[in-house]
Amino acid sequence: MTETIDTGGTGPLIIPELVALDAGPGTDKSDVITYLAGVVAGAGRADGPEGLAADALARESTAPTGIPGGIAIPHCRSEHVLAASLGFARLAEPVDFGAADGRAADLIFMIAAPAGADDMHLKLLAKLARGLMRADFTDALRSADSAEEVVRIVTEQVQPELLEGGASAEEASAPTAPAPAAPTTSAPAAGSGGSERVIVGATSCPTGIAHTFMAAEALEQAGSERGITVRIEGQGSGRIDALDPELIKRADAVVFAHDLPVKGRERFAGKPVIDVGVKAAVNDAGSLIDRALAAIDDPAAQRVPAGVAGGQDAAEEDEASVHWARRLQRAVMTGVSYMIPFVAAGGLLIALGFLLAGYDVANLYGKFSITDYSLTNLPGHEFVHTITNSAGDVVGTETITLDRSGLPLYLGWAFFLLGKAAMGFLVPALAGYIAFGLAGRPGIAPGFAMGVVAEAVGAGFIGGLIGGILAGYFAAWLAGLGVPRWLRGLMPVVVIPLGTTLVVGGLMYLVLGRPLASIMTGMQNGLTSMSEGGASILLGVILGLMMCFDLGGPVNKAAYLFGTAGLAASTTASFEIMAAVMASGMVPPLAVSLATFLRPRLFTKAEVENGRSSWLLGLSFISEGAIPFAAADPLRVIPATMAGGAVTGALTMALHVGSRAPHGGLFVAFAITNVVGFLLAILAGVVVTAALVVVLKGLGHRKSAAAAA
């Protein structure tokens, strides 16, 4: 049955004045887009053709909108659109729109949505996008004799209630998007031994109008052709009709076809996944479904990582209904996630610099310029630093002698400087992307600025955290203000960034800077005292428990942030904390690999296969290698990994193991102080976790056997 949408008074998307048959606007797609913008404006649906054409061409420049079958769907959301509209042209001479099948397009729909389009308009446009994936719909458009007939065909697809008598019989029988809560199908998958296969997923595109829903329709049709259940969540603009959590639980595999981050990705945790761009699903959905079916039985297939171990059963909440604390947590995790690449790249480059040039290369920082040297003028062992006073007068000299010289020193110095530059973005990236998580793109610039301010006043990552949150909330408040239409275009690019930076930046400099700097200093001093005193072991236990609790989730990331944020201080305490974090995070995948080797009969065939590769992930400090095991049996695996992590964390602190690298595991052993202690601590944690996993699973196995008897 076709989904019925209450239009609530929404006018027709297409009228005869928006249709051009056998048109010849030119030989280039820009000619066609400009022509259709004129058609839309000529019908009174836009305030002028130039602005609409510019917005549509800007969208076209990001990715071609041609799709297989001789169709193109240039589209945009524009301030110049007065009412949601579909401009249609059937071309006398097809024009190339960059479709994957190489076929030039003769059916062109310009989907023009107002910048503030509501959910109703977007749903109607989504229904058109799904219709374009059906051959009967496009064949009817090619054979239509008049503009009025085109209007009828399109209206039957997107707004049947506007036709006399409601939906026609043809429209009512046409395949449409199935409701998310209809999770079953009668036909089993071929080759599945008679059992039904269920594939779920999500699609998204930058505008959230066309490709999002065309990809969803194509995937569902491909599943229907193969006799399996495929349900796809179109994450378009406006409200998202989330998949039924029970259906996700039953799913055998996942397909993500997206150009934007998947919302609620953690719902699919632990399942085999095919992850591609949205155009791949539009162009060849069948091959994606085939790949997903193959991944079901492939133990080495890529899987969806978890935000929390075992995933999250509930669908992503509608943004308007999310509790403020949950929204804030997600924003902070967004900031941490975007910050980590800066930390990893910067920290590893610094460690590589130390490997080549020695640790004393840090003494050159801020005193000498590497540009004074070259491959033909390599540095020597000694550097003479001239010391000047505030007036610029020379008051003395300082001679710095290094153990290394020549090419190793030159290259190591360069790597060290690159690493320091990347680490310099740590706090700005944290603040910028926290603000992004709260306010979207308008929050990025003021958020980054607050990160720089936090560094300038000495508030460190605490200041970046607070500054990013304040910038995000203030930018979101500004974005929600009602402003005149002429000002809307300036809000996200000028008014919001400028206003937020002025207000929150002033607050950071004039009010919050000194208190936050004091908190940061107190925290650093406290960590140093804990590391040097008896409390260091307790700190190691806590960090180990956090790293192994949710294996890449919020708690794990909080511990990792705690460790990496201190690296900039370059103190013994900060290096020991980083070592505890990294060593503990290596334990879970190594331990489950050992457990599957020792007692394979306690695990499924897929888990045994995963165990053969998870040891490499463990050696690389990729905790997520244990997620499939934790997701399948959280009550036994997670406590075991936490116990092993606590042992490892405590031992690294007790043995004064230090790490100057934030990532890399065993492969950055050159940056580890007391490598033997590092290995012993990891080995102890792995043995504890593996033993507990075997014991706990063995108890469960015996209970199951007794129940079966």
From TrEMBL:
What is the designated name of this protein? Answer: Fructose-specific PTS transporter subunit EIIC
Output compositional bias ranges, type Low complexity: 166-176
Location within or outside the cell: Cell inner membrane
- UniProt entry tagged with the keyword Cell membrane: yes
**Which InterPro entries does its entry note?**
Bacterial_PTS_Sugar_Transport, PTrfase/Anion_transptr, PTS_EIIA_type-2_dom, PTS_EIIB-like_sf, PTS_EIIB_2, PTS_EIIB_2/3, PTS_EIIC, PTS_EIIC_2
Could you tell me which CDD domains the record lists for this protein? PTS_IIA_fru (cd00211), PTS_IIB_fructose (cd05569)
Q: Name one GO cellular component term.
A: plasma membrane
The UniProt annotation puts the region (Disordered) at 166-195
User: Where's the PTS EIIC type-2 domain?
Assistant: 328-706
What organism is this sequence from? Actinomyces timonensis
Give TM segment ranges: 336-359, 410-436, 448-478, 490-512, 533-553, 573-592, 637-655, 667-696
User: What GO MF annotations does this protein's record show?
Assistant: carbohydrate:proton symporter activity; kinase activity; protein-N(PI)-phosphohistidine-fructose phosphotransferase system transporter activity; protein-phosphocysteine-sugar phosphotransferase activity
Mode of membrane association: Multi-pass membrane protein
